[in-house]
Amino acid sequence: MSKPDRPATESRRGFVNWLLGTSAGAFVVSAFYPVARFVVPPLEAESATSSVTLPFGPAEIGTNQGKSFRFGNRPGLLVRTPSGELRAFSAECTHLSCTVQYRTDESRIWCACHNGFFDLTGTNVQGPPPRPLETYDVNVRGDQIVVGLKA
Amino acid sequence: MENHESRLSAIWNWLDQRIGLAPAISLARKKEVPVHKHSIWYYMGGMTLFLYLVQIGTGILLLIYYRPSAEEAYESVQFLMTDVKFGWLVRSIHHWAANLMIFMAFVHLVSVLFMKAYRPPRELTWFSGVILLALALAFGFTGYLLPWNELAFFATRVGTEIVGVFPFVGDFALKIARGGTDVTGATLTRFYGVHVAILPAIGFFFLGLHLLLVQKLGMSVPPSIENSGSPKRAMKFVPDFFLRDAIGWLVAVALLVTLAAFLPAHLGVKADPFAAAPAGIKPEWYFMFMFHQLKLLPAHILGIEGELVGVMAFALGGVFLFLVPFLDRNAARGKPSPLFTWIGIAILAYILIMTWLGYTADPMG
């Protein structure tokens, strides 16, 4: 009998271990891949809203007043300035996306969450907001207000 | 009577032969707690644990009536508070025990920090403890949304938006956190799953590790006591320390019931995703210092958006806190480390002052 062929046994064992290790690894990956994909929410249909007709008319918003509206699935804010002009903005604060409101006492747009102020053109003028509010076009057609994305 | 005792011991022997109760008993008998002038701080962890158990009990009860959807969540909590017998009590205790648990966890952490109990070989105990505190905050954050009221809605909107501030991974992480790009019913369902299943599962793992390490390594004795060579007295854990623990827990139960009765948890107004954020909006008190800091930061700092600077600074602060056992080289070598005591005092003072300013600030700017 010759001596047992050790290197051959070891390389065989090494191969089996390698096979076992990679199989275990592949098993773990194949088990966790679906879990990881499951946790990521599916793509929502992108909000295709480009214009909305508001559920209230121009007569229902007085001077120096603000009113919230839905712009697709996002909040919007319609403001009638002290000079009587209608302006529409996205109501999402550019800081940490709280919903802003019109402050009659200040005649400015205000975010209650972190005390940010925007002027009547939507420009960030005070507090933490880093950018101006997105502005929309406002068209009054008879007793209807139509708000749309800027062309 | 004798008959009764012999029957008990027969049951005991039957169990002992099968699962080996004797070693567990002798281990419990051997456990001792050092007695010195700072021993009072040894009770803080046990108190936190007790409040966590209260949370599990009341949380399971709340599950019976709660419905995790944007259409039904608020109404189901309202039903629980008004129609269900003792529903108000269970929810109010859950609310108060959550707050007290996080408070006790903070006290526990601060006392461990000042007594340098994170010195070798207890680094892993510290790491698991900091992770448990983070989990407790995550419990608080996810639980806050579940009643689906106005305050919770905006707190969640701001809180998750902060995740989105991080460079590169922010947008993706925000979507994972919210279950979409906005805070919706999908976010509520997701937070519910995290609050009642995922966090408890992770929590049990780290709690188990934390408790195992405390058993294995024993209680840490502060360096000042160790160095003064004062007589090392000790107290048996069973029954002496445990009974003292139990008295504390009884006091906690009395306090919880009193708070629940006199200051029951509010429900507020149902969340409306299209309404403006209400004036005076604020997060839970343990997030107040960060919330107020973000309010005070300017829009841009050195050309970078202010909130990014703030959020990154808090993240680095968290990493620093986590790594204290590795950073405090002097304490690890058994030398005095006044620097870390002063850093601890500075952090504590900062948090207290910011929280105070947050509560006294004029909500209308």
Task: Describe this protein's structure.
The complex is a heterodimer of chains A (151) and B (365). Chain A is an alpha+beta fold and 151 residues long. Chain A has two domains: 1-42; 51-149, Rieske [2Fe-2S] iron-sulphur domain (Rieske Iron-sulfur Protein). Chain A contains one helix and ten strands; from the N terminus they run H-E-E-E-E-E-E-E-E-E-E. In chain A, the strands form two sheets. Chain A has a six-stranded antiparallel beta sheet with strand order 1-10-9-4-3-2, with no helix packed on it. A four-stranded antiparallel beta sheet of chain A has the order 5-6-7-8, with no helix packed on it. In chain A, strand 9 (135-141) and strand 10 form a beta hairpin. The longest helix of chain A is centred in the first third of the chain and has 34 residues, at 6-39. The longest helix of chain B has 33 residues, at 185-217. With 365 residues, chain B is mainly alpha-helical. Chain B has a domain at 31-277: Cytochrome Bc1 Complex, Chain C, CATH 1.20.810. Helix content of chain B is 70%, strand content 3%. The model of chain B has no long low-confidence stretch (mean pLDDT 91). Chain B is globular and about 70 Å long. In chain B, helix 3 packs antiparallel against helix 5 (87-114) and helix 7 runs antiparallel to helix 8 (170-178). In chain B, the strands form two sheets. Chain B has a two-stranded antiparallel ribbon. A two-stranded antiparallel sheet of chain B has the order 3-4. The interface between A and B is medium-sized, with 31 and 35 residues.
